[in-house]
Amino acid sequence: MASIPTIRAPFDKEALARGWEGIAAREREALECQPTGIAKLDALLRGGIPRGSLVELYGLSSSGRTGLCLSLLAQATGEQQTCAFVDVSDSLDPMSLAAAGVDLTRLLWVRCGDGENTLPRSDFPSRSRPEQIGKEKIPPQVRKTDGRSCGWRHPRDQVRGIETSIPSMMRNGNSRNGAQETTARNVAARCAGEQVERDRELPRRGENVRHVVGPREHDRAASRPNDKPNVAGGSKPWKRLEQALRTTDLLLHSGGWGVVVLDFGNVSWVDVRRIPLSTWFRFQRIVEGTPTILMLLGEEPCAKSCASLALRCRRRSDQWRGAASLEMRSGMATLQGFEVEAEVARSRIRLGHAESIRWQACRVLSRSA
Amino acid sequence: MPFACLFVPDFPVQAVVRHEVELQDQPVAVLEGSPPLTKVFSANGRAKTAGVEVGMTKAEAEVCPSVTWRWRSPVAEASAHAALLDCAWTISPRVEDACEGNDEKRHDTVVLDLAGCERLFGSPEKIANDLRRVAGDVGFDARVAVAGNVEAAVCAARGFPGITVIAEGDESVRIGALPISSLSMPVELFETLKKWGIHTCAEFAVLPDVAVVERLGQEGRRWQLLARGSHSKPLLPKESPVHFDECMELEFPVELLDPLMFVLNRLLTQLCARLGMHVLSAREIALTLTLEKQDARSKEDPQHVRRLRLPVPSRDSTFLLKLLRLDLQNHAPRAAVIAVKVVATPARARTRQMGLFLPLSPEPEQLEVTLARIRNTVGDDRVGSPKLLDTHRPNAFRQDRFVVPEPSARGISAGERTTAALRIYRPPLPALVEIDGGKPSNISCDGARRKVLALAGPWRTKGDWWSETAWAREEWDVLLKALRPKYQSDSDDEEEETTLYRVYRDRRLRRWFVEGVYD
Lengths: 369, 519
Hints:
The structure holds 2 protein chains of 2 kinds. Chain A is an alpha/beta fold. Chain A has a domain at 4-116 and 237-366: P-loop containing nucleotide triphosphate hydrolases (Rossmann fold), CATH 3.40.50. In chain A, 30% of the residues lie in helices and 18% in strands. Chain A is built from 11 helices and 10 strands. Chain A has an 8-stranded mixed beta sheet, with helices on both faces. Residues 117-149, 173-179 and 202-234 of chain A have low confidence and may be disordered. By secondary structure, chain B is of the alpha+beta class. Chain B folds into 3 domains: 3-228, no CATH class; 244-294 and 301-348, DNA polymerase, Y-family, little finger domain (Dna Ligase, domain 1, 2-Layer Sandwich), CATH 3.30.1490.100; 422-518, no CATH class. Chain B has helices at residues 11-17, 45-49, 58-61, 74-89, 117-121, 124-137, 150-159, 171-176, 187-195, 201-205, 209-228, 257-277, 317-330, 364-378, and strands at residues 3-7, 28-32, 39-43, 68-71, 95-97, 109-113, 143-147, 163-165, 244-254, 280-291, 303-314, 337-348, 383-388, 397-400, 417-420, 422-436, 439-445, 448-451, 454-463, 471-481, 498-506, 511-518. In chain B, helix 4 runs parallel beside helix 12. The longest helix of chain B is centred in the middle third of the chain and has 21 residues, at 257-277. Chain B is elongated, with a radius of gyration of 36 Å. The chains are: A alpha/beta, B alpha+beta. At the A-B interface, helix 2, helix 3, helix 4, strand 5 and helix 5 of A face helix 13, helix 14, strand 13, strand 14 and strand 15 of B.
């Protein structure tokens, strides 16, 4: 299958011949680039990631996308730039950052969440605390003002929190019918003044999204209604997404950043795609004309035409030292790493002819091997 | 050797009014004492014109129309006195605090030595004008006098309105024109002189020295020298302050943030003006809010203290106000506020040589405001730069306050490979692991059961065995079909989704967890 640049080339030629320069892909030479740290990829991108653009880096879990992102951060911080990492699901590993060569003092790490995951405790998980895993806790901002006479509650802010109270009121005495819950949530959101868009009301199962779950697994999951789907952001991530978008907005407006990474890696792309496209358009307009790169890291592309460049990563093969199968003896194998393939899914700028490149991603402990 | 005196008339009123700009053109009187013994302690000129006199009871004074009443505030007076000293320090380093020595009435007066200042600031008239302007910047309508000795300067400042410059040798003439009431002498002495028919300093000055000593003693002699403008006293210079503070007691408890911001704005404006007089900036701001007592049995008012350490010293009151607002939004006090105190720790202002080729970094002030806003969004302990701890404990890190470091020589070259980063689940996911032959064969986590396709391990680690925080674990790298399968989009090709996980067995808890995924 031909790559998008290959398909676009004749169209661009025709557009330039007719004087439609705005439609034709821009020439690469005019743009300043940030090298990614992978020579082959930089050659493919003709210098690196273009500055002043919104870039998408996507792929499945274990596809090598995070490693590539850390490599970019290592390059940027190595050039004394200040970078930011907005971690939607609080999943960044500082050890991996250090192993990738990122200058930690030049990286601002913002961990989104509702306060349930604080800094790692020295005794965590401890004997006395395993039962608390997964329990919901009250966020600190709410806890501080509850039941107090003070706390800067302006009268116009008194309605805040109604979106949480109305569903509980409607749920009292009612059955847990899915349709009723849907109504309750949407009513609550509207009472809180939130503009509920059509595509954010509730999951749209069966339209153009299908969940790959075997029938037995589905039945098993349905038989345990109390089990929360909490695997890495399986629960509703709206609050964390809202925090991340607000944080990114603040960072981009403050200016002076080399690379700002918005990490949706552990959030389902179905949820990420419900972010209005106007958000990405706004972000793209903010970084346009500045030296800042806004990188979205996720499962699937979500910014569509707002992204100047979209890179897709895949894991091609794993490297295990010794026998990799289950039949091997315990203690005789180590995970060396895996091979990553990246391809340019879309680009506004004209690139080289190679469609994809491959490189090696090494496990931290075996990098020196 | 000339001396200048800076005097603020009706000091208790001006100490209150300097934080309430709208009252500067209004008749204002300050009350003191608990009811029913409340009396007028001080009143400004307009209030005196309206009929208010010092010493009147509140009931008598309330007859006077359109007078604004305020309670006397010792903390506001202390702040105002410190501001007055700062005004004097802008001109001379040798400043005497006239209120020292248990003379409480002289909070309103500071004296400064002008020796050598003519070369820097010009003539005594110009210095006096500068002093009055600087005092106006911090909200005082002050009087300034320059004379050849300390006491003559003080007498002239108290006696003459506006600016007074007395040439060398003219002290007796100029001071002589003043009424003896301007000398602030004891009441008994004043009454005695009044009975003698003496009303001006000149009349007192011409009395024979021996006769004055015989009738009034050495104290009378001292007051006579003052009336002649020839009483000399050495100036006792005061040390420069270590901290700058501004205080304000509120008329009524404030429960909302917006009204409090108006108060803070006034205090910070005054504080920054004072720092500017010393060519200093604030390195740290400490805000102390005195709260309303909720328990009547407690003796002391509870306090809410917030400290802001600034990334770079600053005396931009707008910037400081923004930071305090964001901090208070996130750390609201638990009761209404009745008094506010802002203390600034001074530091030299930031000097930085800019360049064309400096690396890209945010402006420190703008960055601090942005970080405060982000902290309000995600929480205090979730923003910062990561720092690895010096331990073998897994996932051991802390987040330090993010400050843009100075540029340093550090480079990194492009290579041919990257690091397989680990994406960590916080907290780790509890899992059930089926063991076959000492190795994991199936993993159940979050309602899904997956067969292990490949694995490596175990990596056994442990530490802190000598303490209660001991840990011991056994790590495995496993290849599984994804625990949370991705929703398939229309563009997806059908490929088997396998993922590399790190799982571990906590050997102390005897439980298995999924720690993260390699990515």
